[in-house]
Amino acid sequence: MECISIFDMLKIGVGPSSSHTLGPWRAARRWIAELKNDNTFESITSVTVDLFGSLSLTGKGHATDIAVILGLCGYDPQTIDVSKIPDIIDSIKKSKKLLFNNELSVPFDPMSQIIFNKEFKEFHPNGMTFHGTFKNGRKMSSSFYSIGGGFVVKEERKRKEKKLEEFQCFPLPIQKATDLLEYCTSKNKKVSEIVLENERSLRSDTEIDDRIAQVWKVMLESMYTGCHTEGILPGGLNVRRRAFDTHKKLIEDTTYNSPQEWIEAIRNTEVKFRQILKWVSCFALAVNEVNASLGRVVTAPTNGSAGVIPAVMMYYMVIENHDANLDDVKQFMLVAGEIGSLFKKGATISAAMGGCQAEIGVSSAMAAGALTELMGGTPEQVLMASEIAMEHHLGLTCDPIGGLVQVPCIERNAMGAIKAINACEMALDADAAHAKVPLDKVIETMWETALDMNTKYKETSEGGLAVKVSLSDC
Three-class SS of residue 146? Predict the structure, then answer.
């Protein structure tokens, strides 16, 4: 049982991967905190990092080594100036020194002190171990696991009673979709209103509003940046950014000077029916092109699926409701975050555990449910829309070419966003009270599918497109 805030599901970070970039980054910072708590930080003389399993097999393409270095340097993924990342890494590679937590200079050669091990640790495919040597010659190690969406855990499990105690910190504890629906029915409230009650047990209304506004600001800026940046994505695949060209054709000669003015400009543009899909795809592609270039995005619920939710929210703002504002964004994010937490509790949001169904599939389900509530859907229709979206992502593999979060990952965000909108429309037209497939059942099925899926299709680049198309072909 877990008590998961929507802000656990919607984290601000740096691309290209929540499990391979943001997770290891946060793990490095957690290790530093351990050393500080043990009063051993000042005595450390050398640092070595072992990466295992999926973190090793696709670590280079996912910039895992870069993320680990930035975490060891003490940088915060929410606030770092992403434009300075290349210079920071180049400086460390040349000097073979890093400023540990921005405090202590230690020798560090990334080529020999970040070790890629192909074997998998038993606890989780995304394992890493930090090793430290101290002035007195003593050595110590600490292992972490990046379990998806930027979540990082230790292997040790807390006692069941402690987990139950944590679970009960919400006034309305929710483990399954049926729990959520029961609260909605008994209290005659929307999904977003139930979720808001739980969030209020953690923080004030002002903090909730401020954090949602910040999440939306980053989402909007990532769409805006992606639509206004042309060129080739880094990594060696020579993937051309497409959002720029698509956006240029759609916006034509319209002028604006900021992301907010951009929203108004799109609203005032005559959008033809066949252009709606192009706009949605453009928004999603833009975010994940920013993600692929180590830009700042919001994990929703992961970096690899970061484009779906902002694209669908933007669709609502510029196509469905021109009066939509931050209140609508808040309602959308509350629902989306809760749907995502149901999948994390009942299955996984880690591609290394469940393939891409755990990323694009979950993000599509989150967006579908959230859009349905904004469009006037009942709680039953919200859950039905989420179920439809995931049902048609079941079995989706994760097979990134070259270990990069580019092909097929970027396009999949556009497909996930479009499926979310379609799922919403179908749910709104349906008698959701008699849905044939409950959301809880599709979550269970997704997890069973994940367990059955061959490891080579779980973010290892050992199967599928990843072996049919190589970097040399590009």
Answer: strand
Instruction: Report the candidate in 304, 312, 242, 302 with the shortest Cα–Cα distance to residue 277.
Output: 312
User: Rounded to whole angstroms, how far apart are CA atoms 423 and 439?
Assistant: 13
Lookup: tokens for 444: 């269970």
* Geometric angle at alpha carbon 126, from 145 and 469, rounded to 5°: 160
User: Strands of 114-117's sheet, edge to edge?
Assistant: 114-117, 44-52, 127-134, 139-148, 151-153
- Cβ(288)–Cβ(413) below 8 Å: yes
- Rounded to whole angstroms, the Cα distance separating 12 from 423 reads 27
Alpha-helical segments (H) within 41-156 = 54-57, 64-72, 85-95, 110-113
Could you give the CA distance from residue 353 to residue 366 in angstroms, rounded to a whole number?
19
- Axis-axis angle for helices 360-374, 191-199 (nearest 10): 110
Query: Do the Cβ atoms of 48 and 339 come closer than 8 Å?
Result: no
Mean local confidence (pLDDT), 307-311: 98
- CB of 118 within 8 A of CB of 55? no
Rounded CA-CA distance 281/317 in Å is 15
User: What are 152's strand-pairing partners?
Assistant: 146
State pLDDT tens for residues 379-429.
Answer: 999 999 999 999 999 999 999 999 999 999 999 999 999 999 999 999 999
